[in-house]
Predict the structure.
Amino acid sequence: MPELSNPFSLVGKTILVTGASSGIGKAIAIECAKMGGELIITGRNKERLQETFLALQGTHHTQIAADLSNEADLEALIDTLPPLDGCVNNAGISRPMLTQFIEKKDMLEVFEINAFAPFSLVQKLVQNKQLKKKSSIVFTSSMLGVLCSAPGSSLYSASKGAVNGYLKGLALDLANRGIRVNSVNPGVINTNLFSEGSITQEQLDEQMQRYPLKRFGKPEEVAYAVIYLLSDASEWVTGSNLVIDGGFTLL
Ligand SMILES: NC(=O)c1ccc[n+]([C@@H]2O[C@H](COP(=O)([O-])OP(=O)(O)OC[C@H]3O[C@@H](n4cnc5c(N)ncnc54)[C@H](OP(=O)(O)O)[C@@H]3O)[C@@H](O)[C@H]2O)c1
């Protein structure tokens, strides 16, 4: 029987995923490995990173613990990376806070992890020519800061808005090398990022009802979109935002 070709296949692609020790990044790594990708996963927490590593289907995967807000860790990570076909900038923090309580140190912390670290990582990969021709860069952005915001989310939204501006310019800068740059923009996804906030179950239930599809998203549902953006199926897609929000921003 002839072999069926799959445009979403990641066979032969080496893919870096940041923030792979938890939540969406963990699901991205696991689902990309199922599609045949060779994964390099990174996160801060070594135990949880190892859990993700053990859940990866196939062989030839690598795990590298790194705090991306630490310049030395970032440099060490880059030094060990092979040429990449995919780079998923997913690590992030939320820090919900009303505007009047935000201090400069909070601004620096959120921007350091959500914006400056991925900007530096990508810049160094480009400078070192560690991104192959026709490679794909994906940012885990958010619907917040790009399409809408929420009370207590001004700082987080600002950081994701910065990512959005960056990726549009980057897509133009890298187009002549055939490198594509896109984002996934999720609504609320059931992960630690969301449940660790100060929100009560009652508030969560109320918020869930505001989603036309009447539930929050699952990490795997973001991972499937990332697979599309990393694969040859999206070869003519660059500078785009793929919204995954159960219809939330329709209203
Ligand atoms: N959950 C949502 O509702 C939602 C919605 C829209 C967008 N997003 C975005 O999705 C991404 C992943 O979030 P999540 O929900 O999966 O959250 P999560 O479960 O808290 O995972 C966050 C990941 O980022 C890593 N990370 C945080 N700070 C880091 C640092 N300084 N250096 C290296 N890694 C660091 C964490 O590593 P360690 O745990 O090892 O420290 C962890 O792997 C974030 O960019 C977030 O903004 C989430």
